[in-house]
């Protein structure tokens, strides 16, 4: 009998086994790294995708929890253009003055809010968007104090958005009330009117029921506002549904410090 030493089958009979006859382990061992990755992806893509989504959600929740800061006060500028220096005084300056831990707390200052009935004003196009922002902020209790010019002050007053500053200061800080009493400004709130009816009947005369009370503070003598050099008077008001009135009063005191 002849033996062929170079016959590969004689040396390794396993090399001629069919793919179907291989075990799963042998099939896996026979694959290259790239084919192994492709195999895993082809057969397990759905569980992999679901697992990655779950890990992302968990990671995002952990990140938000670690980096979350409580907002101690929401403030806004309406028809007031403050420079970078003043905005820093109105935010970081207040937090530092109150010795508030900025690692866990922060303050929000909305800017770029404009309210005007003058169609020729360059800011008239922003009025509608500002109305929406104001309504959303008040509804969500995310607006506490407002710094504004006279036109914006009138708009906030007429809609009944502002606290009676005399009552609030007398109740929360009588000494501050005595200090700021000369700067209290009265404005008018419209309780009821027929403005909507006049849309459908132009022959009607405008009729309204109003009330007046001190709902603003003239900031002309507030040091940082005075130094900013505004041409028009800037007024301060506290939003009527603010859940942070004590902090809002402290903010007012800070402006005059």
Protein described:
Helix 7 packs across helix 8. The chain is of the alpha/beta class. The longest helix has 35 residues. It has eleven helices and six strands. The chain has two domains: 45 residues; 186 residues, Periplasmic binding protein-like II (D-Maltodextrin-Binding Protein, domain 2, 3-Layer(aba) Sandwich).
- Assembly state here? single chain
Question: Low-confidence spans: pLDDT under 50, at least 5 residues?
Answer: 3-11
Order of strands, main sheet, comes to 2-1-3-6-5-4
> How big is the Rg?
34 Å
Shape: elongated
Mean pLDDT: 87
User: At the fourth CATH level, what is the homologous superfamily of the largest domain?
Assistant: Periplasmic binding protein-like II
CATH class of the largest domain: Alpha Beta
Helical percentage:
40-55%
Largest sheet: 6 strands, mixed
Strand percent estimate:
15-25%
User: Helix/strand-derived class?
Assistant: alpha/beta
**How far apart are the first and last residues' alpha carbons, in Å?**
113 Å
The CATH topology of the largest domain comes to D-Maltodextrin-Binding Protein, domain 2
Order of helices and strands: HHHEHEHEHHHEHEHEH
Number of strands: 6
CATH architecture of the largest domain: 3-Layer(aba) Sandwich
- In total, the number of domains comes to 2
Helix run count = 11
């Amino acid at each position: 009998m002849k033996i062929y030493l170079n016959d590969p089958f004689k040396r390794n009979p396993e090399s001629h086994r069919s793919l179907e006859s291989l075990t799963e382990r042998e099939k896996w061992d026979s694959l290259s790294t790239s084919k192994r990755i492709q195999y895993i992806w082809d057969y397990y893509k759905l569980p992999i995708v679901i697992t990655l989504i779950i890990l992302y959600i968990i990671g995002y929740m952990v990140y938000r929890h670690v980096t979350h800061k409580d907002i101690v006060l929401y403030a806004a500028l309406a028809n007031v253009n403050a420079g970078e220096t003043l905005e820093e005084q109105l935010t970081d300056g207040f937090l530092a003055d109150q010795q508030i831990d900025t690692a866990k707390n922060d303050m929000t200052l909305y800017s770029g809010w404009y309210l005007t009935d003058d169609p020729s004003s360059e800011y008239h196009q922003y009025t509608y968007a500002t109305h929406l922002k104001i309504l959303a902020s008040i509804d969500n209790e995310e607006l506490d104090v407002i710094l504004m010019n006279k036109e914006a002050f009138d708009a906030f007053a007429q809609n009944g958005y502002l606290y009676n500053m005399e009552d609030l200061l007398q109740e929360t800080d009588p000494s501050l009330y005595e200090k700021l009493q000369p700067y209290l400004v009265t404005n008018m709130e419209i309780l009821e009117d027929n403005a909507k009816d006049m849309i459908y009947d132009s022959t009607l005369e405008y009729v309204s029921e109003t009330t007046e009370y001190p709902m603003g503070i003239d900031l002309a003598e507030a040091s940082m506002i005075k130094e900013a050099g505004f041409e028009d008077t800037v007024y301060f008001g506290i939003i009527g549904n603010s859940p942070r009135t004590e902090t809002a009063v402290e903010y007012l005191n800070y402006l005059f410090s």
